[in-house]
Amino acid sequence: MKTIKSLFFRKLKANDIFMVSKHTFLAYAAVFIAFCQLSLFTADAVQALGAIVDIQWLRIERVEKGSFCTAQGVIQQLGETTVAVATCVSSLQLPYRLTSFKPL
Fold this sequence. Notes:
Layout (H helix, E strand, L loop, with lengths): L3 H5 L13 H31 L1 H7 L6 H33 L5
C-alpha cells in the first residue's frame, strides 16, 4: 500500500491514484481541500490589504490620482482575481477528485 508521503514526493503516474486505499485517498482529498482553503485565505488577505489603505483617503479627506492610487488598485485587482481563480479551481476540481476514486 502506498503512503501519502510517496504520493507527494514523486511524480504521479496515471494509475497511481487507483492503487491507493480509500483512507489514503481521503487524506489526499483533505490535503487538496486544505490547500484550496489556504489559497482563498491568502487571496482574501491580499484583497483586505487593498481595502485597508482606504484609511489614507480618509486621512487626507479626498482621493487623488497618483502612484498610491495605482498601487491600491493593483493590490485590490490582484486580490479579487486570485479569489475568483481559487474559487473556480476548487469548485471544479473537488467534485472530480471525490467521484473519480475507484477502490481496489
